[in-house]
């Protein structure tokens, strides 16, 4: 079945090294979720669509996540209406979804499949960051000093380490808020387009409130060990000068997560 997906890219030159990937692991995970939707929750806290190497698998996983989180059952039949009909010359999307489910062996290894997909995605991102670092070092502008390049590389590596970790990472705010409301923890305020599936499935109820006051408190944070650039230092000084009540104090990661 992996061969059908590879035919989507017949022009690939095999003389070049391909980025690390495992199409079979992606197919096995998607098949496991289609057979038993509970398998999705074994990977949903760290795996996102962008971690999939094959574009069509990203699209399938994204639709799977939306359908399951909307409280509906995700099967080849319910998914095909949200995906393009055509896939390859030999196989349509409904046929491919049916084969994914038919060839799924077990849902017990879903977490292992997900971790494999995640690890390979991180390796691809590391390769991309490394290639960009080399290219920038060779062809940098006059204003792009070595220290600035190091700072940018540090930021990219830090973001990569913090985003979507399989040992327990952060959820997008809107997604966390939706899950909290569905669990009966209270009310929430989000953009309507982020809950269209939940509204259609009847999992959430929209409350039309006019002139709803929005009062927010903003925080500007930076890493304590991070050396701020001259522009960042000026901006920080302006913020502190604008609000006499503002104060600079260390904030632990535990407080940020809370």
Helix and strand arrangement:
Elements: H1 2-6, H2 23-35, H3 55-69, H4 76-79, H5 93-102, H6 110-138, H7 146-162, H8 173-182, H9 196-201, H10 230-242, H11 253-257
In words, what does this structure look like?
With 258 residues, the protein is an all-alpha fold. The chain has three domains: 170 residues, DNAb Helicase, Chain A, CATH 1.10.860; 40 residues, no CATH class; 42 residues, no CATH class. Helix content is 49%, strand content 0%. It has eleven helices and no strands. The protein starts with a helix and ends with a helix. About 2% of the residues have low confidence.
Task: Give the tags.
single chain; 258 residues; mainly alpha; DNAb Helicase, Chain A; 11 helices; flat
In brief:
The protein is 49% helix and 0% strand. It is built from eleven helices and no strands.
Number of domains: 3
Distance between the termini: 45 Å
- Flag low-confidence runs: 164-169
Percent range for helical residues? Answer: 40-55%
Output the radius of gyration: 23 Å
Q: What would the average pLDDT be, to the nearest integer?
A: 80
CATH 2nd-level architecture of the largest domain: Orthogonal Bundle
Listing every helix as H and every strand as E from the N terminus to the C terminus, the arrangement reads HHHHHHHHHHH
Output the CATH class name of the largest domain: Mainly Alpha
What name does CATH use for the topology of the largest domain?
DNAb Helicase, Chain A
Q: What would you give as the CATH superfamily of the largest domain?
A: DNAb Helicase, Chain A
**Sheet with most strands:** none
Number of helices: 11
SS strand fraction: under 5%
Structural class: mainly alpha
Number of strands: 0
Shape: flat
């Amino acid at each position: 079945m992996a061969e059908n997906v590879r035919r989507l890219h017949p022009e690939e030159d095999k003389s070049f090294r391909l980025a690390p990937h495992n199409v079979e692991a992606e197919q096995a995970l998607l098949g496991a979720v289609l057979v038993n939707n509970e398998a999705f929750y074994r990977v949903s806290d760290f795996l996102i669509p962008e971690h999939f190497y094959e574009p069509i698998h990203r699209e399938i996983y994204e639709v799977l996540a939306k359908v399951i989180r909307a409280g509906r059952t995700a099967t080849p039949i319910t998914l095909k209406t949200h995906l393009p009909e055509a896939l390859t010359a030999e196989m349509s999307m409904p046929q491919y979804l049916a084969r994914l489910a038919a060839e799924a062996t077990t849902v017990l290894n879903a977490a292992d499949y997900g971790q494999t997909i995640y690890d390979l995605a991180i390796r691809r991102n590391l390769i991309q960051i490394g290639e960009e670092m080399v290219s920038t070092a060779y062809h940098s502008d006059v204003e792009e000093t070595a220290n600035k390049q190091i700072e940018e590389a540090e930021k990219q590596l830090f973001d990569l380490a913090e985003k979507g970790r399989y040992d327990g990472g952060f959820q997008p705010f809107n997604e966390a808020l939706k899950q909290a409301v569905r669990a009966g923890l209270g009310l929430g305020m989000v953009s309507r387009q982020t809950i269209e599936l939940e509204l259609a499935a009847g999992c959430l109820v929209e409350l039309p409130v006019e002139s709803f006051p929005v009062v927010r408190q903003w925080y500007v944070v930076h890493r304590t060990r991070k050396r701020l650039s001259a522009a960042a230092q000026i901006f920080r000084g302006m913020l502190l000068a604008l609000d006499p009540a503002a104060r600079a104090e260390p904030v632990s990661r535990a407080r940020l997560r809370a």
